[in-house]
Amino acid sequence: MSIIAIGSSPGIDSLRLLGFDVVKVPEKVSKETEDEILSSVLGSKAVLIEGEIYRTLRKRLKEILSVIQEPPLIVVIPGSGKGETYRLEELYNMISLAIGVQLKWKK
Predict the structure, then answer these.
(1) 64 has pLDDT over 70
(2) pTM of the model
């Protein structure tokens, strides 16, 4: 089973010690780099991806993963500079939409 970690912060390299295949990407992701990241994601069982990179790849990931029979587990983690991810805000909006009420959010 292959588990990969994708990120741009220096802390992502430490996941190599835990057995992750680390894909280090620049802060600004080019189209070529996006294709490399997506091919890595497709060849793995689980993916840890930093929130900033997930935000840029989110739409393409949804399109690709929706047609795969067994998609990998995607876990969005915060970068070294932030304590939270964009994914938390995305889930908040999704839950509020599902129940039809804007939930209170204490940060």
Answers:
(1) yes
(2) 0.75
